[in-house]
Amino acid sequence: MNRFLELVSKHDQYRKKVINLQASENVMSPDALKCLGSDMASRYSLYEPAIKSDAYGGTGYSEEVLHETEKLASEVFGTRFSEVRSLGGHISAEMVLLSIVKKKENILSISEADGGYTGYQTGYLPEMFCFQNYRLPYKKEVQEIDFEKLDRVMKSTKPKVIMLGQSFFLKPYDLKHVRDIADDYDSMVVYDASHVLGLVAGKAFQEDIAKYSDIFFGSTHKTFFGPQGGLIFTDNEEIYNRIEKNITWRTMDNYHISRVASIGTALSEMKQFGKEYASSVVANSGKLGKFLHEKGFPVLYDPWFSYSHQLHIAKKEKDNPNEFLDMSRKLEKNGIIIDREGRIGTAEITRMGMDDMEKLSDLIVRSIQGENVRAEVEGIALNLKMRYWMG
Ligand SMILES: *Cc1c(COP(=O)(O)O)cnc(C)c1O
User: Fold this and answer.
1) What pTM value is reported for the model?
2) Which atom of ligand 1 is found nearest the CA of 116?
3) For ligand 1, what atom is nearest to the CA of residue 193?
4) Does residue 247 carry a pLDDT above 90?
């Protein structure tokens, strides 16, 4: 057998036997997967306004895929404009920031220490595009924006953009309050919903995102049902046109048609099942937090724990930089997968039909205590059945 088919097959078999609690991951339906692996995966399609035609032949169906995906995206997220070709959440951030921030202007974003995205920190996107990033004041203990300090920071930095969204993301913002402050200073409100895009689609997180932000965008594969990619939304035509200019031959060239077809499938699944899925994800993380806490596992933010798909783990051993790595490895030996940064996620298990959070908390805690629960985990994982798709 081809070496790569062999590795992929081993990986697939392995993944069937484990319970995945990584907050940035999800599973695709067989339909979405089929689109991704179709003939479209090696085709080009590029509509050129100058010649009022595609630059490539044989693109009739691919053009339909793109247009129907755009239409469905706007419908599911309730915006006038949607951009569905972006290759990821990070690329979407590049497209958006390039379109609205000029050199030497300022942005505010949540710091990495408060759970913000690394890409917005000095040394990454700000350095590439020659703008300045300042810390958006945030109260980590309650996971809320520090509005008292924000006013002062707005005065001193006059940011072009207030960039919201986090990689460690538990609670929606008081977005109306941010909008009011942004308006006082003529700033734009941009919302990076990478982690929570599926919850937003299912109206279980930040329901007012389209109302109070100028632009929002996010990854298609964290809480959303898609393959890896990005979606960008706005109601503002002028902003939309600027973003469009920063796509082809600037931030990317071809957009991977098969991937867009797969995202179209994910959008139709979200349209039909998104509400049920997203509310179950949030309910499951709340329940899992409560059960873990009751069993003495160091989950943060008692008594509310989470309003998203994530739970955050408290650091107990101050001098051990590998605490989360060790914990993750210990769980992995038992077939339970979490990242090495102190997050637990409930998106994938919820899609896989797992709702018994008491049992799950029991397996996590027993693994941490050194018990071998591998066979039990495997038994559960092998019997899971994916839901929220047409099959
Ligand atoms: C994951 C993440 C990104 C990057 O998304 P990709 O799809 O991996 O490019 C950007 N912003 C935030 C807040 C994220 O959590």
Assistant:
1) 0.98
2) 13
3) 13
4) yes
